[in-house]
């Protein structure tokens, strides 16, 4: 029997110790966990001791004799830990509870990898970033409105969902959960001077209070800070009804447009901010997204509104709170910097959130674009800020259905963008909520998960673990795959994912984009407010001929053609070079799949996603070859190039590849809502007619 000594009054240590006991049982041993006080009188010898100590304090050795105590390594920082062994005892030492929790989780994982404690290396590990966040859009008072949000309401209101989600976050070392909606206050408080602005009965509001209070407490017990983030000038529909019929409400009005503000609206919102802080003591921070419904305002006017309302509301609160300030998409860094410097005394901590490559962070590891453009954006970090830290928003609007795993991209991203002024990252989406999984066939034997984030567990593990410790080895993820599928396929499976999941980055690098709907890589589509638009959302052959590249390292089809015809060498990755890379990646992934056992239904489901990605690579490659050849033909009438274009756009190339994608995905997915398409349900079959239209385009020599 292995005795674990820990602080049983600490929810974070309780959580982690339970995971450690499970790992010990997997190694063939049994483990008991006892608190310090019980241990000191039990006479038992401890094999594992977990303790939180200050740098100059001493942690007791297994005998409980303070004269034999040790001090923690001076290199250990908050959220970090030290694993050390002395006299046959394994110690997890930390300077705060979160660090102790992460250290125990690390110990549990290393025990599973090595099989015995003696093989667990002594080490100090600190968090690479202090801010490791999940962006979570709420389905009520939502920024965007669609069935894919409405379907999520009951699940997101269920605290049992949050129990699992928060456990996932803690295990993967996330320490921030940010909630986003237009006007969060309606379900949280009844404003003292505007009571009719909350339409809920006292009983209904009490149910909501219980929900929020419990959720914030649950997060705190996992070392997770919570932030509530709204969108500036919006008010509740009830406020509009009872106090000002001209006001812009969250339920009636579109999120984008000109402003409408009065002193009464300012007073109402300011009081909401103050009450929210005072009535929810476990809420860590608040934030605002500055810009929407302020189109007619100058940068100084927008910031002044935030100063008068949010910052003043914070000053009037009973406690200091942390703040997230979204970088405005009308760039004037000096205005924002001055405002943050002025509020820094009233805020416990300030983070400036910047959208990395706008809505499509899975485009390049390099920062090439921010929301609204990039000219002048560097003014937020040059000179380096002293009153706030930059936090990169890694928006995913490109793959919601197929599983994605590409650890090399995450590692490169962090290496490229981890400057001293960067506090961390958010991962998340504006158009997808990872709760109810409505895309997978519900009666399928594949489906052994309750929630969408559980299906995408590897995605969350990769980002969370690498953000915490970029040195975490791929063997950790391979082990997790082995354990999940009860088979030694982790190394091959991760390699297969890594090969085929480069496709979204390749498409986004070649095909320029801006906001959310302008690219959806797994659907090979690009749209705008017109949504499905009778199929115009599909990236057609003509689109590839016309669209410029996003990443300057990539050469567009049009520019490559012009260079070829002019006899000029194209500097950069050409469409034909990209096609070759895509084909190699697809072949590597498919070869790895072919060498794996059929496995469990869940493994079959994962393999199907990898196969679908492989054929998306092949489809994109064939279409690039066709587009390049057809572009040259249209300029010089070269019949050989016409035949090459026709060859690659038809079966057995592009057209057959898309049909294969349809077959694979229909084996376990159903047509489902997608924000990008409005009321049209998404499926890969939806675009079969437009795959055929590309063939017609060439045959008719358009």
Write the layout of secondary structure elements.
Layout: E1 2-6, H1 11-26, E2 31-35, H2 36-42, E3 48-52, E4 58-59, E5 70-71, E6 81-86, E7 89-94, H3 97-114, E8 123-125, E9 131-137, H4 147-150, H5 153-156, H6 159-171, E10 176-180, H7 202-220, E11 225-230, H8 237-242, H9 263-279, E12 285-288, H10 299-315, E13 321-326, H11 333-343, E14 347-355, E15 389-395, H12 407-417, E16 422-428, H13 452-455, H14 457-468, H15 474-485, H16 490-500, H17 503-510, H18 541-546, H19 557-566, H20 575-594, H21 601-636, H22 639-649, H23 654-666, H24 688-699
Parallel strand pairs: 1-2, 1-3, 3-7, 9-10, 9-16, 10-11, 11-12, 12-13, 13-14, 14-15, 15-16
Antiparallel strand pairs: 4-5, 6-7, 6-8
Helix pairs in contact: 1-3, 6-7, 9-10, 10-11, 12-14, 15-16, 16-20, 16-21, 19-21, 20-21, 21-22, 21-23, 22-24, 23-24
Explained architecture:
42% of the residues lie in helices and 12% in strands. It has helices spanning 11-26, 36-42, 97-114, 147-150, 153-156, 159-171, 202-220, 237-242, 263-279, 299-315, 333-343, 407-417, 452-455, 457-468, 474-485, 490-500, 503-510, 541-546, 557-566, 575-594, 601-636, 639-649, 654-666, 688-699; strands at residues 2-6, 31-35, 48-52, 58-59, 70-71, 81-86, 89-94, 123-125, 131-137, 176-180, 225-230, 285-288, 321-326, 347-355, 389-395, 422-428. By secondary structure, it is of the alpha/beta class. The longest helix is centred in the last third of the chain and has 36 residues, at 601-636. The chain is globular.
Biggest β-sheet description: 8 strands, parallel, barrel
Rounded to an integer, what's the Rg over CA atoms? 27 Å
Please state roughly what percent of the residues sit in beta strands, choosing from under 5%, 5-15%, 15-25%, 25-35%, 35-45% or over 45%. Answer: 5-15%
Multimer state: single chain
- Total strand segments: 16
Main sheet: strand order: 9-10-11-12-13-14-15-16
Give the overall pLDDT as a whole number. Answer: 94
Helical content band: 40-55%
Low-confidence stretches: none
């Amino acid at each position: 029997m292995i005795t674990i000594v820990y602080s049983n009054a600490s929810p974070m240590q309780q959580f982690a110790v339970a995971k450690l006991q499970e790992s010990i049982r997997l190694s063939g041993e049994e483990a008991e966990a006892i608190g310090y006080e019980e241990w000191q009188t039990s006479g038992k010898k401890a094999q594992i001791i977990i303790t939180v100590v200050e740098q100059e304090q001493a942690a007791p050795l297994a005998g409980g004799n303070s004269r034999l105590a040790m001090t923690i390594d001076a290199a250990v920082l908050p959220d970090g830990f030290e694993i050390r062994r002395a006299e046959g005892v394994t110690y997890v030492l930390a300077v705060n509870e979160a660090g102790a929790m992460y250290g125990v989780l690390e110990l549990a994982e290393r025990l599973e990898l090595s099989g015995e404690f003696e093989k667990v290396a002594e080490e100090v590990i600190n968090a690479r970033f202090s801010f490791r966040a999940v962006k979570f859009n709420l389905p009520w008072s939502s920024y965007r409105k669609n069935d894919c949000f409405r379907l999520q309401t009951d699940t997101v209101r269920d605290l049992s969902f949050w129990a699992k989600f928060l456990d996932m976050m803690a295990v993967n070392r996330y320490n921030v959960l940010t909630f986003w909606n237009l006007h969060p206050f309606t379900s949280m408080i009844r404003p003292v001077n505007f009571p009719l602005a909350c339409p809920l009965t006292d009983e209904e509001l009490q149910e909501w209070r219980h929900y929020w209070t419990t959720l914030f407490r649950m997060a705190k017990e996992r070392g997770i800070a919570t932030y509530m983030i709204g969108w500036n000038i919006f008010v509740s529909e009830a406020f509009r009804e009872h106090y000002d019929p001209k006001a812009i409400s969250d339920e009636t009005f579109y999120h984008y447009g000109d402003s409408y503000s009065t002193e009464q609206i300012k007073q109402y919102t300011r009081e909401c901010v103050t009450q929210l802080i005072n009535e929810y003591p476990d809420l860590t921070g608040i934030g605002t997204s500055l810009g929407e419904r302020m189109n007619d305002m100058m940068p100084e006017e927008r910031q002044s509104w935030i100063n008068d309302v949010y910052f003043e509301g914070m000053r009037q609160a009973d406690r200091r709170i942390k703040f997230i300030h979204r970088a405005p998409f009308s760039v004037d860094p000096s205005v924002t910097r001055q405002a943050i410097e002025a509020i820094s005394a009233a805020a416990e901590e300030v983070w400036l959130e910047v959208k990395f490559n706008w809505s499509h962070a899975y485009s390049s590891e390099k920062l090439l674009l921010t929301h609204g453009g990039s000219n002048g954006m560097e003014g937020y970090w040059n000179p380096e800020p002293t009153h706030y830290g930059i936090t990169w928003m890694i928006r995913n609007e490109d793959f919601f259905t197929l599983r994605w795993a590409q650890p090399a991209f995450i590692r490169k991203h962090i290496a490229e963008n981890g400057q001293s002024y960067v506090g961390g990252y958010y991962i998340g989406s504006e158009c997808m909520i990872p709760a109810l999984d409505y895309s997978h066939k519900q009666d399928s034997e594949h489906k052994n998960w309750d929630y969408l984030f559980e299906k995408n567990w590897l995605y969350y593990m990769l980002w969370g673990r690498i953000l915490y410790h970029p040195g975490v080895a791929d063997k950790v993820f391979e082990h997790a795959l082995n354990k999940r599928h009860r088979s030694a396929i982790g190394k091959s499976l991760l390699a297969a994912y890594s090969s085929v999941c480069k496709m979204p980055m390749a498409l986004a690098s070649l095909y320029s984009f801006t906001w959310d709907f302008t690219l959806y890589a797994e659907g090979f589509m690009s749209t705008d407010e017109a949504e499905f638009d009778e199929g115009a959302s599909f990236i057609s052959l003509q689109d590839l001929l016309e669209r410029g590249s996003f990443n300057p390292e990539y050469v567009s089809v049009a520019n490559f053609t012009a260079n070829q015809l002019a006899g000029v060498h194209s500097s950069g990755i050409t469409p034909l070079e990209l096609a070759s890379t895509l084909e190699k990646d697809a072949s590597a992934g498919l070869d790895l799949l072919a060498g794996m056992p059929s496995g469990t239904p869940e493994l079959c489901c994962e393999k199907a996603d990898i196969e679908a990605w492989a054929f998306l690579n092949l489809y994109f490659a064939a279409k690039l070859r066709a587009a390049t050849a057809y572009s040259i033909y249209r300029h010089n009438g070269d019949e050989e190039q016409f035949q090459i274009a026709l060859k690659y756009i038809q079966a057995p190339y592009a057209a057959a590849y898309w049909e294969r994608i349809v077959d694979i995905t229909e084996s376990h997915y159903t047509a489902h809502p997608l924000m990008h398409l409005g009321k049209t349900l998404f499926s890969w079959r939806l675009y079969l007619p437009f795959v055929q239209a590309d063939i017609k385009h060439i045959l008719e020599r358009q």
